[in-house]
Amino acid sequence: MPFLPSSAHPLPRHIAIIMDGNGRWARQRFLPRIVGHRQGVASLRRCVQACAARGVQALTVFAFSSENWRRPPDEVSGLMGLMGKSLASEVPALQEAGVRLRFIGQLNALAEGLQAALAQAEAQTASGQRMTLNVCLNYGGRWDIVQAAARLAARGETITEEALGQALSLACSPDPDLLIRTGGEQRISNFLLWQCAYSELFFSDRLWPDFDEAALDEALAAYAARERRFGKTSEQVQPPVQPQDGQAC
Ligand code: IPE
Ligand code: IPE
Ligand code: MG
């Protein structure tokens, strides 16, 4: 049964995912790594549909990190080719489902043809109201903080927490409530360093191509059972227990 949110079991408004494990998924099957990445796209399609169906407002996924350029050139070019192909195959369904696509990262370092395709996909889905899908491409959390600080400095603005937060590349979405990483590693790998300051972390041993709806619901249930205190005490965030009629207090 899909996860059912309630006031006692809230749904994260914004989920961020480090989609890790494509290469190992392929290697386990003696297949080239790119086959794992293709399966990763299929897994993302399922995950987007499942998140939208459950009422998640924003989903942010790590598709290519600023460090992933260090991979063998054929894997990098395979991944870039897959991005372009996936746009062509996925955008019509996203448009239909009311999902707005946004690309986050240092996009000007990507091939011009790909940049144009990204801009076109954003424009085609701009009216989507159901959910926003932020795809982080050539993204690094340190880069994001530096570009935000540089923007403020160029405008001669004072650097405050609020101003910096507004200058970050994900300022249009609330901070992620839940950060999921698949593939068994328990690290952030330079993802949303600023924005995940208070996110609940969920690490799954499943490889990303195997991360299905049941695995998502497991993460949602774990999130719902967490107590988010934001520095306060448990007593401060828990609603007081009401004594029932006729019972001695
Ligand atoms: C994540 O899967 C996808 C990208 C980084 C592009 P990996 O390719 O890192 O998979 P593993 O970690 O090698 O299994
Ligand atoms: C993080 O995965 C980046 C993406 C999922 C796009 P990596 O596989 O690159 O992370 P590390 O290098 O193992 O930390
Ligand atoms: Mg990896």
From TrEMBL:
EC number: 2.5.1.-
Alphabetized InterPro entries for the sequence: UPP_synth-like, UPP_synth-like_CS, UPP_synth-like_sf
Cofactors: Mg(2+)
Active site: 20, 68
Keyword Disulfide bond among record annotations: no
SUPFAM superfamilies: Undecaprenyl diphosphate synthase
Purpose of the protein: Catalyzes the condensation of isopentenyl diphosphate (IPP) with allylic pyrophosphates generating different type of terpenoids.
Family: Belongs to the UPP synthase family.
Protein name (Swiss-Prot/TrEMBL): Isoprenyl transferase
